[in-house]
């Protein structure tokens, strides 16, 4: 029996390169250096990596929000949304996509909301601009949205200013603002990083619920593996401007192929780790630091910090190699026997 | 809110009182007195008697001060020896002239300065920005009175496009009593207002450019773009509304600047305003005119600051509406 | 101007270029130095300043005549610029360029010295107010409010009236005494924020006297805004001095200041504009340079701008 054909991906990113010109003359920062992935309709894709790996620049590039000097998206990059090439859209068409078909929420809700306009005005604005609602109708929509995101007393809150609200509520307002036009894709750039842990859980739950209700896809960008484990269907791991591993969440946690992912998973402290798992009782960390985007290492960019690295890694940059639906940018997939060389403690199984 | 206003008003009154007091004592200590035989004007003996009675010129200085305050409370600002009229009348004639000049200059200052500053910020590092920025820098660095002299030279003396000074044509329009005379007044007002206004505009442009650039860098501007808004709306609604907040503090600073500039510009253009009045009075040791002018100018400065603070409190919702603990 | 004057003038220009080049090289070593020179107007501003300072210092070398010298009262009044009198002569037949060069000494000197007085007083008052707070702070800040309530030129005019003919050093003091208010507010704000830092608490815990804490720990960190306001303030002082002299209440004739040169030339503006125009141009250029340098300094010393 043949499988039903998969629906075409909502978003296709191929070989995205976004470079920045630095002022000091230290050269070009190749923040995103050949990134490719898909987002399927209705799925949650997690993009994971440390700061400096290019995940935020990737997300900004999709909506073309990169400031043109000093940044630019290199020709040869390809971003397609619902069959249309985002990079060649006219400004008017691009504006019709932003906030309407693809919406974005940012990390810091206090600085991402305009302090001199009410919360209601800022939510209603997208409805007025994209759906041509009247001010009264847009205001009603704003109140509906506030209710949808779980803000109590929405009729009152709609006239409040951002500084009158707590961090968690402000993030809910940002979500309301992003979803008012029922976008097909929501890009969430570190939506919970600036929030307390308990609020984090609430916001993630909210996103899941809304996603189910509205049937939209979510691209969740974070450095926190715990966030990804709970909510993402598939995960893309980024390092040094490149995708280094891509798999379903379950697969990734069960069988990480790239040493960087192994390291990330091992770095998460666990209360139930036994003494045998941690003979020296210390927290595991990946040695070294993320290199500067102006000077990516030669060969495999992770090799200076990799416990398995050998000559080939230092000389040749590995392409994304496949192991079924699971891909990783590592020579270990070509030479799996080298995995028995000095290794960190095996990662514990996911929750 | 009310408490704050009351407190500020009380403080303002105290400040004005302090300024007047200081001025009183300093100007009385100045060398030369209007009554000495070598002074340029002869004060008629009747005036001397009257003032001696009202202000105690034969009494010790501190008594004179108390008498002055007492007279002030009843609205008697004293008499001008040089002009032979009550100080209040002289001020009442001069203040509107300075006021109109300052207002016209303010309009030019803000209209040109804001537009320029915003344009420069939006087109940061373009040729226009750099050229205009340097011109603004140069104009902002000029002595105001020197610009006045240059404008007078070029437009009045060489091109004969504007009058060489004064407030009106003394023959045709001794009083402002017809539409034609209004036109004559505006014609006389143009160069002095331009002089004051352009130097101010250059400063405003520099300031507003920086304020606008600071705001454009903020994340909520990026959010506005991510919502799919037109760039024009992003800049002129989302960004500008925030960039106007620091501009309001500039309004408060405008008063002292205009009053300072007015002193010199009025001298250059022979504009019969308060600046000219005060300078002459100081030179002639016309005591009560000087203290009267100090009273008026410090009141205007303090009022300007008060208005600016009020405006700011109203315009910035973070101050107007008290926030919940974040 | 004779050939030696031209040589001296070119020498001044070359020296200024060398100085700017040397400063630029030294500045390249630090991040703030590089930030300073990133401003396109910073280097030219520095050059203009240095050049005028050189001219002021070498005034007797670059000026062909004495500043008080009335060359030929009958025939050379208001003579237009020529090769001999490069900027023309003023209504009293004095060479404008010579007076300009000597006047640089007075105008620049007054600017720098008065600003120094103002900054010193302002820093002292601001630091004291910010450090001790409570009634000391309130009292001092009320004083500042009063000082700022009168337009500066007014206050200056009234105070200067105390003298018939004011000597230049006294003028410097008076201008300085009327100009410290804004600096004190700035320093006070810095001190208030710095006061809460740990190293201040540590110094106090060690029993250091308040003056020592202020001078050795607080002020060096408040130095940045002081320096910037000083640079910008000198320009302000020069404009004020020009205004005062223009009204006849500043530097007394026949000593040349750029301001009283404008006053002298004003009456003949229509027929002989050069004697009033060139001093004003000189003031504008120097103040412009000071503004440019001040702006660049503000960016260079701004601690928030550490990374790109």
Question: How many distinct helices of chain B?
Answer: 12
N- to C-terminal distance of chain A: 34 Å
Could you list the spans of chain B in which at least 5 consecutive residues all have pLDDT below 50?
Answer: none
The backbone outline of chain A, from C-alpha atoms, is globular
Instruction: Please state how the strands of the largest beta sheet of chain B are arranged side by side.
Output: 1-2
- Number of strand elements of chain A: 13
Mean pLDDT of chain A: 85
Portion of residues in helices of chain A? Answer: 25-40%
Question: Compute the gyration radius of chain B: what is it?
Answer: 24 Å
Overall average residue pLDDT of chain B: 83
Structural class of chain A: alpha/beta
The amount of helix of chain B comes to over 70%
Describe the structure.
The complex is a heterotrimer of chains A (351), B (326) and C (308). Chain A is an alpha/beta fold. Helices cover 31% and strands 20% of the residues of chain A. In chain A, strand 12 and strand 13 form a beta hairpin. Chain B is mainly alpha-helical and 326 residues long. In chain B, strands 1-2 form a two-stranded antiparallel ribbon. In chain B, a hairpin with a 4-residue loop joins strand 1 and strand 2. In chain B, helix 6 packs across helix 7, helix 7 crosses helix 9 and helix 9 runs antiparallel to helix 11. In chain C, 71% of the residues lie in helices and 0% in strands. Chain C contains 13 helices and no strands. Chain C is globular. The mean pLDDT of chain C is 84. Chains B and C meet through helix 1, helix 5, helix 6, helix 9 and helix 10 of B and helix 6, helix 7, helix 11, helix 12 and helix 13 of C.
In short:
The complex is a heterotrimer of chains A (351), B (326) and C (308). Chain A is of the alpha/beta class.
């Amino acid at each position: 029996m043949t499988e039903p054909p998969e629906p075409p991906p909502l978003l296709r990113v191929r070989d995205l390169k976004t470079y920045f010109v630095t002022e000091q003359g230290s050269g070009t920062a190749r923040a995103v250096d050949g990134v490719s992935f898909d987002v399927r309709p209705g799925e949650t894709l997690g993009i994971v990596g440390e700061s400096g790996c290019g995940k935020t620049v990737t997300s900004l590039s999709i909506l073309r929000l990169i400031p043109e000097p000093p940044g630019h998206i290199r020709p040869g990059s390809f971003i397609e949304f619902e069959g249309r090439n985002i990079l060649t859209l006219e400004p008017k068409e691009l504006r019709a996509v932003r906030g309407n078909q693809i919406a974005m929420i940012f990390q810091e809700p206090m600085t991402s909301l305009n302090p001199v306009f009410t919360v209601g005005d800022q939510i209603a604005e997208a409805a007025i601009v994209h759906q041509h609602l009247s001010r009264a109708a847009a205001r009603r929509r704003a109140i509906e949205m506030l209710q949808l995101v779980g803000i109590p007393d929405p009729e009152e809150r709609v006239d409040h200013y951002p500084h009158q609200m707590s961090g968690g509520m402000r993030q809910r307002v940002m979500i309301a603002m992003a979803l008012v036009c029922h976008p097909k894709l929501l890009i969430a750039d570190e939506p919970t990083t600036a929030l307390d842990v308990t609020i984090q859980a609430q916001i993630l739950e909210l996103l899941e619920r809304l996603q189910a209700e509205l049937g939209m896809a979510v691209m969740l960008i974070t450095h926190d593996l715990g966030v990804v484990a709970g909510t993402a269907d598939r995960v893309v791991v980024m390092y040094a401007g490149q995708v280094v591993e891509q798999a379903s969440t379950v697969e990734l946690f069960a069988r990480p192929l790239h040493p960087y992912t192994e390291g990330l998973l091992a770095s998460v402290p666990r209360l139930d780790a036994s003494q045998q798992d941690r003979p020296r009782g210390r927290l595991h960390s990946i040695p070294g630091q993320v290199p500067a985007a102006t000077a990516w290492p030669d060969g495999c960019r992770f090799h200076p910090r990799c416990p398995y690295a050998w000559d080939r890694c230092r000389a040749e940059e590995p392409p994304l190699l496949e192991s079924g639906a699971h891909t990783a940018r590592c020579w270990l997939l070509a030479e799996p026997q080298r995995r028995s060389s000095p290794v960190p403690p095996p990662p514990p199984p996911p929750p | 809110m009310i408490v704050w206003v009351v407190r500020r008003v009380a403080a303002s009154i105290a400040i004005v009182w302090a300024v007047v007091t200081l001025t009183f004592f300093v100007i009385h200590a100045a060398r030369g007195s209007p009554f000495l035989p070598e002074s340029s004007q002869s004060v008629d003996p009747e005036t001397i008697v009257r003032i001696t009675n009202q202000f105690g010129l034969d009494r010790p200085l501190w008594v004179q001060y108390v008498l002055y305050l007492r007279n002030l409370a009843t609205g008697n600002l004293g008499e001008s020896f040089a002009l032979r009229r009550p100080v209040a009348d002289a001020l009442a004639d001069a203040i509107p002239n300075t006021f109109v000049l300052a207002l016209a200059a303010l309009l030019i200052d803000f209209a040109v300065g804001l537009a320029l500053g915003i344009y420069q910020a939006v087109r940061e590092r373009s040729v226009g920005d750099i050229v205009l920025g340097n011109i603004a820098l140069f104009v902002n660095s000029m002595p105001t009175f020197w610009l006045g002299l240059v404008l007078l030279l070029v437009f009045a003396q060489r091109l004969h496009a504007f009058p060489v000074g004064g407030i009106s044509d003394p023959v045709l329009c001794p009083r402002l009593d017809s539409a034609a005379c209004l036109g004559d007044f505006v014609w006389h007002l143009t160069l002095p207002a331009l002089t004051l206004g352009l130097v101010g505009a250059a400063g405003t442009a520099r300031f507003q450019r920086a304020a606008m650039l600071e705001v454009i860098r903020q994340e909520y501007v990026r959010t506005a773009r991510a919502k799919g808004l037109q760039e024009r709306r992003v800049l002129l609604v989302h960004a500008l509304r925030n960039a106007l907040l620091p501009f309001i503090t500039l309004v408060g600073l405008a008063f002292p600047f205009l009053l300072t500039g007015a002193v010199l510009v009025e001298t250059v253009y022979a504009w019969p305003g308060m600046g000219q009045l005060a300078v002459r009075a100081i030179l002639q040791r016309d005591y009560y005119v000087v203290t009267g002018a100090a009273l008026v100018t410090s009141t205007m400065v303090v009022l300007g600051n008060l208005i600016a603070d009020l405006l700011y409190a109203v315009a910035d919702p973070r101050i107007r509406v008290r926030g919940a603990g974040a | 101007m004779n050939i030696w004057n031209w040589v001296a003038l070119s020498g001044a220009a070359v020296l200024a270029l060398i100085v700017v080049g040397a400063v630029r090289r030294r500045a390249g070593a630090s991040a703030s130095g590089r930030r300073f020179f990133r401003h396109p107007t910073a280097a030219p501003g520095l050059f203009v300043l240095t050049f005028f300072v050189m001219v002021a210092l070498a005034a007797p070398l670059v000026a062909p005549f004495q500043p008080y010298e009335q060359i030929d009262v009958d025939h050379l009044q208001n003579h237009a610029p020529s090769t001999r009198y490069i900027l023309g002569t003023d209504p009293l037949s004095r060479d404008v360029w010579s007076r300009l060069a000597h006047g640089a000494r007075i105008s620049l000197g007054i600017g720098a010295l008065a600003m120094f007085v103002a900054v010193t007083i302002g820093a002292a008052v601001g630091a004291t107010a910010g450090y001790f707070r409570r009634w000391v702070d309130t009292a001092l800040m009320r004083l500042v409010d009063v000082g700022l309530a009168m337009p500066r030129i007014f206050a200056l005019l009234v105070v200067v009236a105390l003298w018939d003919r004011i000597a230049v050093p006294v003028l410097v003091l008076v201008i300085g005494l009327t100009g410290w208010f804004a600096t004190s507010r700035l320093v006070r704000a810095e001190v208030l924020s710095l006061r809460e830092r740990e190293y201040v608490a540590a110094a106090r815990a060690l029993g250091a006297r308040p003056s020592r804490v202020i001078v050795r720990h607080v002020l060096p960190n408040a130095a940045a805004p002081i320096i910037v306001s000083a640079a910008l303030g000198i320009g302000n002082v020069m404009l004020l001095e020009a205004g005062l002299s223009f009204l006849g209440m500043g530097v007394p004739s026949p000593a040349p200041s750029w301001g009283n040169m404008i006053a002298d030339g004003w009456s003949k503006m229509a027929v002989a504009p050069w004697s009033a125009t060139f001093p004003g141009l000189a003031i504008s250029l120097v103040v412009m340079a000071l503004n440019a340098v001040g702006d660049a300094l503000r960016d260079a010393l701004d601690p928030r701008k550490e990374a790109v």
